[in-house]
């Protein structure tokens, strides 16, 4: 019976796989230059975009790291070509969700959560190329009416917030702002398929392996499934992810992206080593932001996915923090082991000694816990929590 079911499932899936393999990625045409707005409405829209970019440039959400921004821009150029990326202005936002958008005036917004969810330049290029595909095909013009409605909402909400400038009101406005921006750049499925085809077409012509597009998408599906399992759900809610809310069905998309990739491009350098080096200074902060999302399943999946290229002290530390934050007795035991792994790789990593000490104290092992906390205080005597930690250690605050 099971054998018959497997044969039937194979027969049903075969046409989809064959169809995907028969498709070809769009060949990017010679670049015609930056589109110039036509008519009063489009000119007005471009002016609004310019004003939005001025506000964005001054926002505290922007990660102001010239090296990181320049690196991401370099990956975009390697993907779509130097002529196409010349007019793009990249802004990296400290926002731990998975997303990237591109507006008509050439502003590309890259969420920091995206950087945590790709493992090499090819996967990052797949997402950036997809967004550039929307830009080159001018898909956003078809959303003009929606955008006008959305910006009207933002304008009125901003006015109301200015009349009641409390912290909660400002925070609610920021959440609404990002929600509406996500809606503004939510394209139809046909547009997504066209952007997919063009995005893989860019990769096919680049020096990066185009198979990364399907791999990135598979990782995203696996993360959503891990998140659902940890919360006791049978199926993940893909519509809760801004980048996937309007996209084609996931199985279809993974098959299509794999079929569009040039087979002879699979052996190309995916830029994994360069990507890890560029992200290293920001990895602890991005992991900390992810853990604070309180999504245990997704966070644990992301940490282990990043570790597929090798465990680092930062990754072990993040996993220890994640398990200690959940706080079940078995979690604390695991956390202590993860902190010990981090210390074995880097004994000078002070937060790992702090986490180990706190986990051991909670596990009923005060002797070893005090020793770990003393080591933390030796490494970070001026830490903001040094006095508090010192209160947990006999003689810890002694002069």
Automatic annotation (TrEMBL):
User: Which UniProt keywords are present, listed alphabetically?
Assistant: Hydrolase, Metal-binding, Metalloprotease, Protease, Signal, Zinc
The EC designation for this entry is 3.4.24.-
Tell me the ranges covered by the Peptidase M48 domain, including all copies.
89-259
UniProt cofactor note: Binds 1 zinc ion per subunit.
For this chain, one GO molecular function annotation is:
metallopeptidase activity
Keyword Protease part of the UniProt annotation: yes
UniProt cross-references to InterPro entries, sorted A to Z: Mito/Outer_Membr_Metalloprot, Peptidase_M48, TPR-like_helical_dom_sf
Signal peptide residues are 1-20
Key word Transmembrane present = no
Its needed co-factors are: Zn(2+)
Family statement: Belongs to the peptidase M48 family.
Protein name per the record = M48 family metalloprotease
Q: Native species of this protein?
A: Sphingomonas agrestis
Q: Lineage of this protein's species?
A: Bacteria, Pseudomonadati, Pseudomonadota, Alphaproteobacteria, Sphingomonadales
């Amino acid at each position: 019976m099971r054998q018959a079911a497997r044969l039937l499932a194979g027969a049903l899936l075969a046409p989809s796989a064959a169809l995907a393999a028969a498709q070809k990625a769009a060949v990017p045409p010679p670049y015609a230059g930056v589109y110039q707005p036509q008519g009063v409405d489009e000119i007005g829209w471009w002016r609004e975009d310019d004003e939005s970019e001025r506000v964005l440039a001054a926002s505290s959400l922007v990660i102001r790291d010239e090296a990181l921004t320049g690196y991401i821009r370099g990956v975009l150029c390697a993907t779509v070509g130097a002529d196409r990326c010349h007019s793009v202005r990249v802004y990296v936002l400290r926002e731990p969700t998975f997303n990237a958008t591109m507006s008509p005036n050439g502003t590309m917004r890259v969420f920091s959560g995206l950087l945590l969810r790709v493992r090499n330049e090819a996967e990052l290029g797949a997402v950036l190329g997809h967004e550039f595909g929307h830009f080159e095909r001018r898909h956003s013009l078809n959303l003009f009416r929606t955008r006008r409605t959305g910006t009207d909402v933002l304008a009125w909400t901003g006015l109301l917030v200015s009349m009641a400038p409390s912290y909660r009101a400002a925070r609610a406005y920021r959440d609404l702002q990002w929600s509406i921006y996500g809606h503004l750049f939510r394209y139809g499925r046909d547009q997504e398929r066209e952007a997919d085809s063009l995005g893989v077409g860019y990769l096919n012509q680049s020096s990066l392996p185009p198979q990364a597009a399907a791999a990135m998408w598979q990782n995203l599906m696996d993360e959503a499934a891990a998140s659902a399992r940890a919360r006791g759900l049978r199926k993940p809610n893909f519509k809760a992810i801004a980048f996937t809310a309007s996209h084609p069905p996931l199985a279809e998309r993974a098959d299509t992206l794999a079929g569009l990739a040039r087979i002879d491009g699979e052996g190309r350098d995916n830029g994994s080593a360069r990507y890890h080096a560029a992200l290293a200074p920001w990895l602890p902060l991005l992991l900390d932001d992810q853990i604070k999302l309180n999504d245990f399943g997704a966070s644990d999946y992301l940490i282990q996915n990043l570790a597929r290229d090798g465990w680092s002290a930062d990754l072990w530390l993040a996993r220890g923090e994640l398990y200690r934050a959940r706080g079940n007795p078995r979690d604390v035991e695991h956390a202590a082991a993860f902190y010990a792994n981090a210390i074995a790789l880097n004994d000078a990593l002070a937060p790992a000694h702090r986490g180990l000490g706190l986990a051991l104290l909670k596990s009923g092992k005060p002797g070893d816990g005090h020793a770990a906390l003393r080591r933390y205080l030796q490494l970070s005597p001026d830490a903001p929590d040094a006095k508090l930690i010192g209160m947990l250690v006999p003689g810890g605050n002694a002069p």
